[in-house]
Automatic annotation (TrEMBL):
GO terms for molecular function: membrane insertase activity. Its main location: membrane. Belongs to the OXA1/ALB3/YidC family. Type 1 subfamily. Interacts with the Sec translocase complex via SecD. Specifically interacts with transmembrane segments of nascent integral membrane proteins during membrane integration. The chain crosses the membrane at residues 7-24, 394-413, 457-480, 533-558. GO terms for cellular component: plasma membrane. This is Membrane protein insertase YidC. It is found in: Cell inner membrane; Cell membrane.
Length: 584
């Protein structure tokens, strides 16, 4: 029974290691990473619209079309589309196109392109190599984005904004913050004025995009707000190359509603599993390693009425040029002559910080995808956060978390190690019985079970420490892979990125050494073949760990070191008790 238990545990460990390697490769080919274009002062690549279909009026409707764009010359349109609006806050450097008011480039100033670069991480961009933009506007019967003459060209006050242009305001907690407004205006020939305003708040990633319709015409105005994310099929720029492995998590679309909190949608399935859901409080997003972009429908405010959340239609589709598009569309907005209406939505493009995402929409924080072990992973992350607040270093936080986990599991593991220590003590007696009974396996098994009962030894208890550690090991792997807080997080000396492998392979070698020492403290298998396999295990696991995140290997080293100390003291205690019993 003991032999079969050891074989089962050994097989489970190999399967777990193999599955972890497959997890790196799942849905991601090891393609050559595309070279990122140099930082652009101006993004000149124009993106086609591919807008959603709005609700159209009946044939009897006498509502006029907004067609003032026909008065603009080709030259003025081209010039305006090239004059991007630059917006820089403490978190963003962002560019907005006056043509349609699309966000065509986003740089995250607090996140480096990679650990060896001082360049900011580029979230959205539009150039000859990559298309990933956030579009919004007004469609429908009178929406200017539905005009046959193309997207509207907004008038702008100036082409560059910084926090120096911001105004003081109070946030939801009553603290003073700077709020930056970037207005754009489009006027129709019949007197309808549309003011599109982007509102940035100091220290926050969410951007509120508001459309204000001022109807000075003599007719009713109808339209719908839309927001969409448009992305090509290029690989994830946030994943890291680890030699023969490519580390990465899910790349694709995601959406949620208050009823269905989190749903993933692969790019390849945008047509086959087409999203078409209407919900109040929903969201759509593009998810990648460590980062996410999302549209969250906001509120509709009519004249002399408080803003109320509206029910939006969430959709996915492929464009004619194979672009992946996720969008929302508001209900039809009626603005009678002489009245004003506002409709808005929130746009988020930045790191997957759970505490911020959960306040934006139900389920949006689940884009930090810890997999099926998420309850354990969530607890581990909270523990890491707690220790990081104390020591300010994620490496030491992992060490302190390991100590805490070992203390919690101490009673169970101590009982197991004590049983293993007794197995070690009675090993000579078992060898004597094996020699005495020879080939009589039935008699040997009977005598061995009697010995276990007499010495109060459970041969299966040695499996318990591994069974307890494997879920924690797997959960911590996903915490390191999914938590942007640990991206490029240094520990000390040569370990400057806990989420990447050890560049000098020192930690995996130390892990192998501690695993070997730990094995020497355990009872050795009686079967020669098993003994050889167990001697090879430290070598095999050292090879596996060469490509694992340094933070995960650090956890395993500390765990093994504590286990060695604990097991050594228990072995000495059991041996001493055995000696005293024999003397008596």
């Amino acid at each position: 029974m003991q032999q079969w238990a050891r074989i089962a545990i050994l097989g489970a460990m190999f399967v777990v290691a193999y599955l972890l390697i497959l997890a790196w490769q799942k849905d991601y080919g090891h393609n050559e990473t595309q070279q990122q274009p140099q930082k652009a002062a101006v993004v000149s690549h124009e993106v086609s619209a591919d807008l959603p279909n709005g609700q159209t009026a009946t044939a009897a409707s006498d509502v006029p079309q907004a067609n003032s764009t026909a008065q603009q010359t080709t030259e003025s349109t081209a010039a305006a589309s090239q004059q991007l609006i630059s917006v820089q806050t403490d978190l963003y450097h962002l560019w907005i196109s006056p043509k349609g008011g699309d966000i065509v480039r986003v740089e995250l100033l607090n996140h480096d392109k990679n650990k060896d670069s001082d360049e900011p991480f580029v979230m959205l961009e539009s150039d000859a190599k990559r298309t990933y933009v956030a579009q919004s506007g007004l469609i429908g019967l009178n929406g200017p984005d539905s005009s046959r003459n193309g997207r509207p060209i907004y008038e702008i006050e100036k082409s560059a904004y910084t926090l120096a242009d911001a105004k003081a305001a109070k946030d939801k907690d009553g603290k003073s913050v700077k709020v930056l407004s970037v207005p754009m205006v489009f006027k129709t020939a019949d007197g309808v004025e549309i003011i599109k305003t982007f509102t940035f708040t100091q220290g926050e990633y969410p951007v509120v995009v508001n459309h204000k319709v001022v109807n000075r015409s003599g007719q009713n105005w109808q339209g719908q707000m839309f927001g969409q994310l448009k992305r090509d099929n290029s690989e994830d720029p946030g994943k890291s190359d680890q030699g023969i492995f490519t580390l990465g998590t899910f790349l694709g679309g995601a959406w949620g509603t208050p009823e269905e909190h989190y749903n993933k949608l692969k790019f390849a399935n945008f047509n086959d599993e087409k999203l078409n859901v209407e919900a109040k409080g929903g969201w759509v997003a593009m998810v990648q390693h460590y980062f996410v972009s999302a549209w969250i429908p906001g509120e509709l405010k009519l004249t002399q009425a408080n803003g109320q959340a509206y029910s939006a239609k969430l959709e996915s589709r492929k464009s004619s040029d194979d672009m992946n598009i996720l969008s929302f569309t508001s209900p039809t907005i009626n603005v009678p002559a002489g009245t004003v209406a506002e409709v808005d939505a929130t746009f988020y493009s930045g790191p997957k910080i759970q505490s911020e995402l959960k306040d934006l929409a139900v389920g949006l924080n689940q884009t930090v995808d810890y997999g099926w072990l998420w309850p354990i992973a969530k607890l581990l992350f909270l523990g890491l956060q707690f220790f990081h607040n104390l020591v300010g270093n994620w490496g030491w936080s992992i060490i302190l978390l390991t100590v805490l986990v070992k203390l919690i599991l101490w009673p169970l593991s101590s009982k197991s190690y004590r049983s293993m220590a007794k197995m070690r003590v009675i090993a000579p007696e078992m060898q004597r019985m094996k020699e005495e009974f020879g080939e009589d396996r039935m008699r040997f098994s009977q005598e061995m079970m009697a010995l276990y009962k007499r010495e109060q030894v459970n041969p299966l208890s040695g499996c318990l420490p591994l069974l307890l550690q494997m879920p924690i090991f797997l959960a911590l792997y996903w915490v390191l892979m999914e938590s942007v807080e640990l991206r490029h997080a240094p520990w000390m000396l040569w370990i400057q990125d806990l989420s990447a492998m050890d560049p000098w392979f020192i930690l995996p070698l130390l892990m192998g050494a501690t695993m070997f020492i730990q094995q020497m403290l355990n009872p050795q298998p009686a079967d020669p073949m098993q003994a050889k396999v167990f001697r090879i295990m430290p070598i095999m696991f050292t090879v596996f760990m060469l490509f694992f995140p340094a933070g995960l290997v650090l956890y395993w080293i500390v765990n093994n070191t504590i286990t060695i100390t604990q097991q050594w003291f228990i072995n000495k205690s059991v041996e001493k008790a055995r000696s005293s019993k024999e003397v008596a």
